[in-house]
Amino acid sequence: MSNEPELDKTLRTGEGRATLGVEGAGLDEIAVVPWPILLRRRIAHTVGIDRRWALLIVVLSGLFTVAFTITILVVSLNDVAKEFNSSVATMSWCITGPMLAFGVVGPAYGKAGDLWGHKRVFLGGLFGAGVFALLTAFSWNPFTMILFRTLSASAGAATGPSTMAYINRLFEPGERVKPLSYWSFVNAGAPVIGVVAGAALVDSVGWRAIFFVQAPLCLLGVVIAMWLLPDTARAPHVKFDIAGSITLGVGASALLAGISQGAHWGWTSLPTIACFAASAIGLRLFISIESKAEAPLLPLHWLRTRNIALPILSQSLANFAYMGGFLFAPRLLENVLNLQTTQIGNIVIARPLTFAVVAPLAGYVTIRVGERVTGVFGGLCVAVSMLVFAGVATGSSVWVAVLALGLSGAGIGVSSPALTALVANAVDNADLGTAGAMQQLCSQMGAVLGSVVMTAVQASREADGLTSSYGAAFVVACVVAIGAAVAALFVKSTPR
Questions:
Q1: Residue 145: HSE in the Cβ half-sphere, 13 Å Cα cutoff
Q2: Using one digit for the tens of pLDDT, what is the confidence trace for 369-393?
Q3: C-alpha dist (Å) from residue 453 to 161, 255, 261, 277, 473
Q4: Would you state the pLDDT for residue 197?
Q5: Which phi and psi (to 5°) does residue 422 adopt?
């Protein structure tokens, strides 16, 4: 343990390159990893990539491999339901379950990485995701499909906070915005790309083949990461907050389950009331436990810290509109503009493309104008995007939808890296994994709430006509996105 402070410094500054385990390997071995976002060797040499960026590619590739498949079945749920002789409502838990799991268990992984080393947590999560992805490919009924997908996401959730912890140790506070923009693209963009590519992949190779491919990619990622990644410093003699992890998981899961199924079960039904009651009890116990815990999963003083609470709140509200609006967009295009699946896929790709272009540039903009300006601008872009969607009616040009999707991608691409960097700069290095996990949890809760609330609003207004009902759902998302901009207005930018 005596060399851990020096190792942690090496991770942050990039000094001592041989220690990072990349010197002997060079970039040849990294270049052959077949993950979608890895740079080829020729490009890497051209741009002069250093060891820190090579390690960043490794961890982001693992995160992408896990997150890409969370939403990949969104457009194809009907086909999967028919194969299992089930309903779309039942099979929708193949999407909702993994999204819930990916966020809810994140804080536990963040704390585990801070205590026992993020390399171990990253490797274990990627390995578990691969094993359960393989089992998903052999699913024989709806229950096993939902179970294995949820377990795969539960394991893979470890890659989120661990990746952020590596970024924050590899790069100094003034350098973090740019690498965090790539983290934001992968964390938020991979599920979106999954939605876009899902229909084409399922039609061409079948849904089982997707998970047959994901499994070996995860396991290959384990081998590469085991070889290249250095470990991070571990905090000795500190207890893991088991009670806090359990109560937070129960409280958050019950809340989201009650909201997501309330319309189906009935808002006054016993199961819905039981979910909300369990959520209230679980979250109240969580707060009580955290106030006394020796090593709390969530240090309660963070809730009173300006540059932690407000950026996370802003990201959660923006993600409500971002993911809720995106999952709703294909339904709008199909039911209101009467477009076919292929046309819809070609249109919705506008958002991840815009995100991919804007996110890397956001770092340069943030350095010049500050996180507050970019956070507010991003929230307002998402709000305008939802307002444009609300105006879509029968006969509207498809370019209106393209504009709305582009604005949404640009808004999150600008604001997310800046707000993520603010949180990272506001916590101690020992808590970087925990902070990243809390951001992941709140963002996922925002995404699930967005899709559920917008669905409920649309269903309640359907008697007024499809156009009016979809418009009402997007107006709600617009108001929430404005809330994200307001929250960002009160953050304090990092001194330049």
A1: 21
A2: 888 888 899 999 999 999 999 888 8
A3: 27, 13, 11, 19, 8
A4: 65
A5: -60, -45
Q: Which helix (H) or strand (E) holds 236?
A: none
Backbone angles phi, psi at 434, to 5 degrees: -65, -45
Total residues belonging to the chain:
496
Within a domain: residue 89? yes
- Do 365 and 319 lie in a common domain? yes
Structure tokens at 178: 């740019």
Rounded to the nearest 5°, which phi and psi values hold at 308?
A: -115, -55
Same domain for 201 and 253, yes or no, is no
Q: Is residue 297 part of a domain?
A: no
Task: Assess whether 138 and 246 both reside in one domain.
Answer: no
Query: Encoding tokens for residue 303?
Result: 């809730």
Left (φ > 0), alpha (ψ -120 to 50) or beta: where does 229 sit? beta
Task: Print the domain residue range for 464.
Answer: 302-496
- Reported confidence tier of residue 59, pLDDT bands at 50, 70, 90: confident
**The CATH number of the domain where 466 resides is what?**
1.20.1250.20
Query: Are residue 208 and residue 265 in the same domain, yes or no?
Result: no
Q: How many domains does the chain have?
A: 3
Residue 219 · residue 132 · CB < 8 Å: no
Instruction: Identify which has the larger pLDDT, 246 or 174.
Output: 246
102 plus 161 within the same structural domain:
yes
For 43, residues 6+ apart whose C-beta sits below 8 A from its C-beta are none
* pLDDT reading at 34 higher than 80: no
Who contacts 54 (Cβ-Cβ below 8 Å, separation ≥6)? Answer: 22, 27, 30, 44, 228
8 A C-beta contact, residue 324 and residue 454: yes
Same domain assignment for residues 136 and 28: yes
